[in-house]
Write a structure and sequence with these properties.
single chain; mainly alpha; two-stranded antiparallel ribbon; DUF6965; DUF6965 domain-containing protein
Length: 70
């Protein structure tokens, strides 16, 4: 749960990012706010679900991209 809070804090402080953002060759973010909402909402409902683990991975990947472009 602490990891999720740290990610939320990071994105709250990072500000809105320019789109499109490519997480990888197959994943393009075109709506930054929607991406964050659609990832954080299920994680808040059930963080430990194995189905939600890719969401954490994508959020961490996005965080790394933002940090590397700062």
């Amino acid at each position: 749960m602490q990891e999720l809070q740290e990610l939320e804090d990071f994105f709250a402080n990072a500000g809105k990012q320019q789109v499109p953002i490519f997480l990888n060759q197959a994943t393009e973010i075109t709506d930054y706010d929607h991406f964050l909402q659609s990832h954080f909402q299920p994680l808040k409902a059930n963080l430990t679900s194995k189905v939600n683990q890719p969401l954490i991975y994508r959020l961490k990947t996005l965080k790394l991209i933002i940090e590397s472009n700062a």
